[in-house]
Write a structure and sequence with these properties.
The complex is a heterotrimer of chains A (496), B (97) and C (478).
Chain A lengths: L7 H9 L5 H19 L2 E4 L1 H16 L11 E5 L26 H8 L3 E6 L33 H8 L6 E5 L5 H7 L2 E4 L19 E6 L2 H11 L29 E5 L9 H16 L3 E5 L7 H16 L18 H12 L2 H14 L4 H25 L2 E5 L15 H6 L5 H5 L4 E8 L5 E8 L4 H15 L9 H9 L1
Parallel strand pairs in A: 2-3, 2-4, 7-8, 7-9
Antiparallel strand pairs in A: 1-3, 4-6, 5-6, 5-10, 9-11, 10-11
Chain B lengths: L6 H11 L5 H18 L23 E2 L9 H5 L5 E2 L2 E5 L4
Antiparallel strand pairs in B: 2-3
Chain C lengths: L4 E12 L36 E2 H13 L3 E2 L2 E2 L2 E4 L9 E4 L6 E10 L2 E14 L3 E5 L4 E5 L6 E7 L6 H18 L11 E11 L9 E6 L2 H20 L8 E5 L4 E4 L12 E2 L6 E2 L2 H10 L4 H12 L3 H8 L2 H14 L2 H19 L10 H12 L5 H14 L3 H7 L8 H14 L1 H8 L4 H13 L6 H13 L1
Helix pairs in contact in C: 2-3, 5-6, 6-8, 7-8, 7-9, 9-10, 12-14, 12-15, 13-14, 14-15
The chains are: A alpha/beta (496), B alpha+beta (97), C alpha+beta (478).
Chain lengths: 496, 97, 478
């Protein structure tokens, strides 16, 4: 159990020092996963054999002095919408249930260069569409803090795996909050970088103009180290940006003196759970006590972000998911008559209800006669939302608020009313529309012991400001909210 | 303002999206779409006249590659996942009569 | 038919660009390889793959746009065109709708009534689809993605053409421009130039357009001409019967010489275009345009003038030679080597064109080297071989690009300059033809020809005719 208590960087240090072998680290994570999986279901694929094979190779390289990075030998998990050569990559969908790509996602490739051991692929909402990880073809993932509750989504498997100690860090993807919201629900640190910071090559697209890969970790230092490892300018991704700075760990500084933090009034109003509000305000207070200037302000257009987002994301998704047709890869229906029947049956059987819902909506808003009224209107709204953020960042260094209006809902309570579920994305979604970096840091627990996260939003390319503030907060609070979930207790709660 | 989605529209969108919905699914899809479109219609409260639609959020442009062959014979990797392979091609139901 | 009808035609021409690699990935564009060898995750629409634009495609498209007098769109973007078809691996084609690379141009064509401008509405860049082969036996289709992602420029004309002849003239003009620019080889049989024909008919004198149909699958000038005639007749018949022409896409079957509607319930033809989020805008500066302009090679009109001046060859010759860039290049290279423009022109317009016609070849299929033609010209001039032998040798150069020097050597075709051998042959001919000798001596000049022919034949055509003439005359006067 001792190994599992370590953060990724602490583990990396001990491996480097020879105190723990890579094999021991992998063994600890695998053992923990085997214990947790029957209840939590974080993984679609747990690659035990592969993990030990990697461990052996990486240990050799560490011993030979070829791998010296801080994450060398650390067991990690990858959300199952990122391709890994020769490994099942399902997007938690039946339609890709047999798909093994011939290439590896650039972010994963970068992480491998840093010397991590990939122990498995994590569960998610099908094609990242959902906020609960209940739309997975492989069954829901449960919240390790209380298995009667969802872990959030869509990167629920990655967040649950980190929270339950089934890995020492994971990659997620965030199109409308899919890293930040489940991180909040699972009590882990999650960061969605500025659009273009991490290559999307090999990430199965949902909403191409919104998708970003980011780290999900036990603490802020790990977050900075993972981001530093995966961020790169990738010529294979035309939207990848060549940034000036990739040294995110240099921002691990316990100092927010003079930092201007704004709390949008609309983020703290109606619909926000009082316990979440209390925790977020308390966190803001901590930063204030450490020298930051905290104010409330009016961020405009908050309520328009969700309708704009669902128009744009559904439209892009309807097109991105056209390639799943039973011709080149993935599932093909058993019996069919002719080409179009094959297409329709394959897709109708291969996709789940939430994916179909968004494909239908997306196809409609792009169809002849509606494009201007819906799609272009949404793109114009996006421009206005971006402007609102630009205005706010003229004055503030950071925008602070909750990551989600509530703590994790109970399993089975969300999918019956999709629109209501979408409303839960209100604090995260506009960040994707504006391409900004956003980060969730654990900031408390509700009376049921479910984690609460605060969200820090930065101006474009200002991840370091977020990391600095989060690190300062973490130092001030002594990491009291970042404890690993006790899975034996979590299950007990459900039985009761 | 309330949107009405007809059976024909759902049928039509099903053709565009290549999805075959059962009657129950169709009814659900109609209700879902009507609700979502009503919600999306709240955007009409915003005056967006004169605003350029923003598809790319950052002003990055002119990303190119040079015209140099970098890929070799990709046949096996391309066909490795084929649901139905015939020799070195993908086999599909006949496309034209 | 009581009424007079006018045919109104607009064209969508697809030209495959002659880049080494595909538009969005580093796969080769080579034609005719084994199925699916030139494929990768990007051009087969694998999940997670992303396109990266080939810069050469933009520059070729700009070159075409400028040559066709278009305005270059200085902020241009790609859009997705969504439709399901197995040759289209993503089930969307990356194309341009809202901001195409070039707009508002024209090309000039020659018609029976003089020169005419065909306006170009726009040109856009897009990716080609894969190839489908139909398996009759199994009732399936087989998909090969080698061609998927090969760059295309689609050139959309205004409805400015009125006959099949004008359409062919327009296509030939575009082909010549593309070939001169070196942006495409435009081989119709290989599909590197394809045309969709938009056609409507209206009563002569009418100002409004009739309902048009679009015909696809036209892969030769002959098929295009047939399809235009067939569709024109079909539409006129409909109108004469008081029926309406339906706006639809039709497929031309060249074997059956008939078009049929492609529409089915499953083809909604609602492409749901939207800006391609995986590609960033292309911003084209004035400097970039100027650079492309400066790089534009000499086009046909300038070349024609230069040939007349520099090489002093007749207009007729210059016109024929410059009709194809490939032929013009061959001609110039030959002249460069042998310095004899008129002779080079004669070889090209004579034996080269004759053999091409006999073998049904296009200029692009020519594969002999200018070095060998130049050598042949030099050898003939030097009297190393006779004109008759030269024509035979040229056939070998034309088909197998043989080195004429070697070939003549190996086959013993050198002109006989040995006076003894000539004398011996002539003596025998004179001895065998006393009647002809007598006729000649009696003043019948014609008889000389017979003696000459026989002597040459006896020498197997290898002797210098001048030397033989001289010998016969000498011996007759003895």
């Amino acid at each position: 159990m001792e190994i599992l208590e370590l953060t990724a960087l602490e583990l990396g240090k001990k491996i480097k020092a020879g105190e723990i072998t890579v094999k021991e680290a992998v063994q600890a994570a695998i053992d923990r996963a085997k214990e947790a999986e029957p209840v939590i279901n974080s993984y679609v694929t747990l690659d035990e054999a592969g993990a030990f094979a990697q461990a052996e190779e990486i240990q050799k390289k560490i011993d030979a002095g070829e791998l010296t990075g801080p994450l060398a030998g650390v067991p990690v998990a990858i959300k199952d919408n990122m391709c890994i050569k020769g490994q099942l990559t399902t997007c938690s969908s039946k339609i890709l249930s047999n798909f093994k790509p011939a290439y590896t996602a650039e972010a994963v490739e970068n992480l491998k260069k840093a010397g991590v051991v990939i122990i498995g692929k994590t569960n998610m909402d099908e094609f990242a569409m959902g906020s609960t990880t209940e739309t997975s073809y492989y069954g829901p993932t449960r919240n390790p803090h209380n298995t009667a509750h969802v872990p959030g989504g869509s990167s629920g498997g990655s967040c649950a795996a980190v929270a339950a100690g089934e890995c020492f860090g994971a990659l997620g993807s965030d199109t409308g909050g899919s890293i930040r919201q489940p991180s909040s629900f699972c009590g882990v640190v999650g960061l969605k970088p500025t659009y273009g910071t991490v290559s999307r090559y090999g990430l199965v697209a949902y909403g191409s103009s919104l998708d970003q890969i980011g780290p999900i970790t036990k603490d802020v230092s790990d977050c900075a180290a993972f981001l530093e490892a995966i961020a790169s300018h990738d010529p294979k991704d035309s939207t990848s940006i060549d940034r000036d700075d990739y040294d995110f760990t240099s921002a691990l500084e316990n100092n927010v003196k003079g930092l201007k933090i704004g709390i949008p009034k609309d983020y703290m109003g109606d619909g926000l759970d009082p316990e979440v509000r209390k925790a977020v305000l308390r966190a803001a207070k901590v930063l204030e006590e450490n020298g930051a200037v905290v104010e409330t302000f009016n961020l405009g257009l908050v309520k328009y972000a969700i309708p704009a987002y669902y128009t744009i994301a559904s439209a892009e998704a309807s097109s991105n998911l056209e390639r799943f047709d039973g011709v080149k890869y993935g599932y093909r229906t058993e019996e069919y008559e002719g080409l179009h029947n094959m297409y329709k049956k394959t897709r109708s059987e291969g996709f789940g209800p939430e994916v179909k819902r968004r494909i239908m909506l997306g196809s409609f808003v792009l169809s002849s006669g509606y494009y201007d009224a819906y799609y272009l209107k949404a793109l114009r709204t996006k421009a206005l939302i971006k402007k609102e953020f630009d205005k706010a960042f003229e004055y503030y260094d950071i925008i602070l608020g909750p990551a989600a209006p509530t703590t994790a809902p109970e399993l089975g309570k969300s999918l019956s009313d999709p629109l209501k579920m979408y409303l839960g994305d209100i604090y995260t979604i506009s960040v994707n529309l504006a391409g900004l970096p956003g980060m969730t840091v654990p900031a408390g627990k509700d009376e049921n012991g479910l984690p609460i996260g605060m969200q820090l939003i930065g101006n474009a390319f200002e991840e370091k400001t977020l990391i600095r503030a989060a690190y300062t907060y973490e130092c001030a609070t002594g990491k009291q909210y970042e404890t690993m979930a006790d899975i034996s207790k979590a299950a007990e709660k459900e039985v009761r | 303002m309330a949107n009405k989605i007809s059976d024909e529209t759902i049928e039509y969108v099903g053709i565009l999206a290549k999805l075959e919905l059962s009657d129950t699914e169709k009814e659900a899809a109609k209700a879902d779409m009507e609700k979502m479109l009503d919600y999306i219609d709240t955007l009409n409260e915003l005056d967006t006249s004169g605003i350029e639609p923003m598809s790319h959020v950052f002003p990055v442009n002119n990303v190119f590659r040079e015209d140099v062959v970098t890929n070799g014979d990709g046949r096996e990797e391309t066909l490795a996942n084929a649901p139905q392979r015939k020799e070195d091609t993908f086999e599909v139901p006949r496309t034209i009569g | 038919m009581s009424k007079q009808y006018e045919t109104v035609i607009g064209l969508e021409v697809h030209i495959e660009l002659a880049t080494k690699t595909k538009i969005f990935c580093g796969c080769s564009t080579e034609f005719g390889s084994a199925p699916n060898t030139h494929t990768c995750p990007v051009c087969t629409g694998m999940p997670g793959s992303l396109p990266v634009l080939n810069k050469q495609v933009v520059e070729y498209a700009m070159a075409l746009g400028l040559a066709a007098n278009c305005k270059i769109t200085q902020v241009c973007k790609f859009d997705r065109k969504n439709y399901f078809y197995p040759d289209n691996p993503q089930n969307y084609q990356i194309s341009q709708l809202y901001l195409p690379i070039a707009r508002d141009g024209y090309v000039e064509i020659d018609t029976q009534t003089g020169k005419k401008k065909v306006r170009i509405h726009e040109m856009h860049m897009e990716e080609d689809a894969g190839k489908l082969v139909h398996d009759e036996w199994d009732d399936t289709s087989l998909v090969d993605y080698n061609r998927s992602g090969v760059p295309l420029v689609e050139i959309v004309s205004e409805p400015d053409m009125r006959s099949a002849d004008e359409v062919i003239a327009y296509l030939e003009k575009l082909r010549m421009i593309a070939q001169y620019l070196g942006v495409s080889d435009c081989k119709l049989q290989e599909g590197s130039m394809r045309a969709d024909v938009n056609l409507s008919v209206r009563e002569a004198g009418s100002e409004t357009f009739g309902t048009r149909t679009e015909m696809k699958n036209l892969n030769s000038f002959k098929a295009i001409a047939h399809a235009i005639e067939g569709e024109r007749q079909r539409q006129i018949e409909l109108l004469e019967e008081g029926k309406e022409v339906i706006q639809e896409t039709r497929r031309w079957d060249d074997n059956k010489e008939h078009s049929y509607a492609m529409r089915s319930k499953e083809d909604a033809q609602d492409y749901r275009y939207f800006p391609e989020p995986d590609l960033v805008p292309i911003v084209i500066s004035d400097e970039w345009i100027a650079k492309i302009k400066a790089r534009q090679p000499e086009l046909r009109p300038e070349k024609l003038e230069r040939y007349k001046k520099e090489f002093d060859i007749p207009e007729y010759d210059a016109e024929l030679i410059t009709e194809s860039k490939k032929v013009a290049d061959l001609f110039e290279a030959t002249v460069e080597l042998c310095g004899k423009p008129k002779k080079a022109a004669n070889w090209i317009m004579g034996d080269t064109f004759r053999l091409m016609k006999e073998k049904g070849m296009e200029p692009e299929d020519l594969k002999f080297s200018p070095e060998h033609l130049a050598k042949l010209i030099d050898m003939t001039d030097a009297g190393t071989i006779s004109a008759a032998v030269a024509r035979k040798v040229f056939e070998q150069i034309f088909t197998d690009d043989v080195d004429p020097e070697k070939y003549v050597e190996e086959n013993g075709l050198k002109t006989v300059n040995d006076e003894g051998a000539i004398k011996e042959a002539v003596e025998k001919v004179l001895a065998d033809n006393p009647q002809a000798v007598a006729d000649y001596k009696g003043g019948k000049q014609k008889a000389f020809g017979a003696l000459m022919g026989q002597s040459m034949r006896a020498l197997k055509g290898k002797a210098d005719p001048a030397a033989v003439t001289k010998m016969i005359k000498e011996m007759l006067e003895q």
